[in-house]
Write a structure and sequence with these properties.
It is built from 13 helices and 8 strands. It is of the alpha/beta class. It has a single domain, classed as Ureohydrolase domain (Arginase, Chain A), CATH 3.40.800.10. The protein has an 8-stranded parallel β-sheet with strand order 2-1-3-8-7-4-5-6, sandwiched between helices. Strand 4, helix 6 and strand 5 form a beta-alpha-beta unit. Helix 7 packs across helix 8 and helix 8 packs parallel to helix 9. About 55% of the residues are buried. It binds manganese (II) ion. Manganese (II) ion (MN) binds next to loops. The site of manganese (II) ion (MN) has 7 residues, from loops.
């Protein structure tokens, strides 16, 4: 396919013949879907199910994240023509079967019912063997998503990029609060705190419940790569849930956030951090409130790539949410000799380009994430348009 295919491609949201492949549909035309993927509810053969949870009634300050999933879909149309930059030629859209699963349905006037619906929504996707890529929505949605994943994987390693740790004490089970989801998750035993980390923090934390903090000053002083390495080593081979709060970025880069805090990460630092996470056992990712998508746990278990993790060579894989639909897919992919990340190459445990299902899957997912986060929203070619899209005339942010 090439750009000339724009003459025939239109509405890939419902006409795309395959779950894989680039798209040359005119950016300004057609029905919007996430990265021009096909909309659908059939999860057969799907590697990653992208879904939106447009819920923003648990925010402290400015609302607006309910408009996030729709805005991401529209902005993502610009990212479907080229393979991702900076990933050694790897092209996630061509190698991963991605489906736009649509948004979660809920009654906006029955707020108390929403968390349980999110839990069930994620469980449905995971039971079908697909990975969840969730677009928020405020950060309260992460608590039920963590519940769904913990049921499958046990206590999970949380990697959270955020200006806040969201560990403010909250022992009222009837509250739904974007700033306390992490406290509740720890109290419920959903998170393995010894394996978890907060990155980009710029707010005072009296007790972070055992979760490591790499604040924004550390990222600026030591570099995003070094921090990513520390986070990766802490997570080890434990299943990871990645949560990216958009306010992890400095307001200069993401002015639409509902809770801006100065001194945050730049887009470049965030891109480096996410890329350098390659090798973790990503089970799910979520973007909400101030953060990005979470990835789901995989239904299938594949051997953890020894060279990309701390696990023993004989150990069975833990959660590969991003696992391929069939083992053969991985074999074929590996046979194409895609370059591995630096972290993997450094391993002495195996061939540098051998099959590493989980590591690849995690990296693949992060590539998709990176494209969304940094390119769609900060591409100078439509900066003004994005600025308008990300905050409405009343000044409300779409993210927080
Ligand atoms: Mn935050």
């Amino acid at each position: 396919m090439a750009l000339e295919d724009a003459k025939t491609q239109i509405d890939h949201a419902f006409t795309r013949p395959d779950l894989k492949g680039l798209s040359f549909e005119n950016v300004f035309a057609g029905a919007p879907s996430f990265l021009r993927r096909r909309y659908g509810k059939d999860l057969t053969g799907v590697d990653i199910a992208v879904t939106g949870i447009p819920f923003d009634q648990a925010v402290t300050n400015r609302p607006g994240t309910r408009l996030g999933p729709r805005a991401i879909r529209e902005a993502s149309a610009l990212q479907t023509v080229d393979p991702a930059f900076g990933w050694d030629g790897f092209s996630p859209l061509e190698e991963l079967a991605i489906l736009d699963y649509g948004d979660m349905a809920f009654d906006y006037a029955h707020t108390a019912d929403v968390p349980a619906r999110i839990d069930a929504h994620a469980a449905t996707i995971m039971e079908a063997g697909a990975a969840c890529f969730v677009m928020g929505g405020d950060h309260s949605i992460t608590l039920p998503l963590l519940r769904a994943h913990a049921k499958k994987y046990g206590p999970i390693a949380l990697i959270q990029v955020d200006a806040h740790t969201d560990t403010w004490p909250d022992d009222d089970p009837s509250r739904i609060d974007h700033g306390t989801f992490c406290y509740t998750a720890v109290k419920e035993g959903l998170i393995d705190t010894d394996r978890s980390a907060h990155v980009g923090i710029r707010t005072v934390v009296e007790d972070n419940l055992g979760i490591a903090i790499h604040d924004a000053r550390e990222v600026h002083a030591t570099g995003a790569e070094a921090v990513a390495r520390a986070v990766r080593e802490r997570a080890g081979d434990t299943a990871v849930y990645l949560s990216f709060d958009i306010d992890g970025l400095d307001p200069a880069f993401a002015p639409g956030t509902g809770t801006p805090v100065w001194g945050g990460l730049s887009s470049a630092q965030a891109a480096v951090f996410l890329r350098e996470l390659a090798g973790i056992t990503l089970s799910e990712a979520t973007w909400s409130r101030s953060r990005p998508p979470s990835i789901r746990p995989a239904s299938r278990r594949l051997p953890v790539p020894t060279s990309c993790s701390n696990r023993s060579a004989s150990g069975a894989g833990r959660d590969v949410d991003m696992a391929p639909t069939t083992p053969r897919d991985w074999t074929d992919s590996a046979a194409r000799g895609k370059a591995m990340t630096g972290a993997c190459r450094e391993s002495a445990d195996g061939p540098p380009n051998g099959p590493r299902p989980e590591g690849r899957r995690a990296r693949d997912f992060l590539r998709v994430l990176g494209r969304l986060a940094w390119r769609t929203r900060h591409d100078p070619r439509h900066g003004e348009r994005d600025r308008a899209a990300w905050s409405d005339p009343a000044g409300r942010g779409l993210w927080r």
